Amino acid sequence: MRRAYRRAAGTAWAGGARRGYREPCPRGARPASEPAAAHVQPPDAASASARSPAPGAVVRDVIIVGAGPVGVLLAAELSRRRLDVEVLERREAIGQGSRAVGVHPPVLAALEASGITERLLEGAVRVSRGEARAAREVIGVVRFDRLPVRFPFVATQPQHRTEAALAAGGPPPVRGATVLAVLPRPDHVVVRAAIAGDIVERRTRIVVVAAGASGRRLVFRPERAVVHDYHDRYLMADADVGERADAEVAVVHLHRTGVLESFPLPEGRRRFVAWDSPGAEASAPARAARLRHALA
């Protein structure tokens, strides 16, 4: 129910030293960019064992950390180009909730050649316009259907359906995998992770961290991470509204007490997003009551 924006971590690492990275040379020392939990051996032993791949060890082309929309799309596209890809995902299962619902015209055009756009549009709502309303009157209109582009609309789907369309043809993610550290070596990268209760190390040529804000610790030292906390808070819910005349219209309701956004979804549902006071009570029942009031 709370939405806070932070700079997301998205970084590719290739074999070789990363600028500013320091190896764990002193005995017992811990590099600032690596969490303490990642050390399951003394630093010298761990470093020596992972320095070069052992004979027969698997060295993948790419390991992707995070199976959100970016991670699964990248994995599918790289697999389509015959690269050996593995995806590590902390979540045990795909969440049925969603944060992102809209795919915009430039993205639909960019993904058409790979066949993804066709899958994305199956069952999607094609939002043709947006309206700003106040006191039940329309005070402004944005017409997506008048854009001189290949796909003059915004396609909306629940996020788990979007992820499934993006992931088609890619490797299934290894779920329940918590990545503890990304360790550059001269000719490869070691990814240390906790999987099914064991600490394992994967070797790869390139690592892509696509885990959003939760991946910051894999990319930046804590003292160098740039974090922005935005004080605005929002209440969000997907609700059944049934058939209505504006089923393909996105609406922003303006009121002196705040803003309520409403986006169409398939099967007679809409996504509602309401501005919430930063100082309001944070309990779930209180947030639900404020959202019901905003929808009244």
Helix percent band? 10-25%
Number of strands: 16
Count of helical stretches: 7
Question: H/E order of the elements?
Answer: EHEHEEHHEEEEHEEEEHEEEEH
| Tally of domains | 2
Classification by helices and strands: alpha+beta
Shape: globular
Taking all residues together, what is the mean pLDDT? Answer: 82
Name of the CATH class of the largest domain? Alpha Beta
CATH topology category name of the largest domain: FAD/NAD(P)-binding domain
CATH homology superfamily of the largest domain: FAD/NAD(P)-binding domain
Terminal Cα span: 18 Å
Q: Just name the CATH architecture of the largest domain.
A: 3-Layer(bba) Sandwich
Strand proportion, as a percent range, falls in 25-35%
Unreliable residue stretches: 1-10, 17-51
The value of Rg in angstroms is: 23 Å
Major sheet attributes: 7 strands, mixed
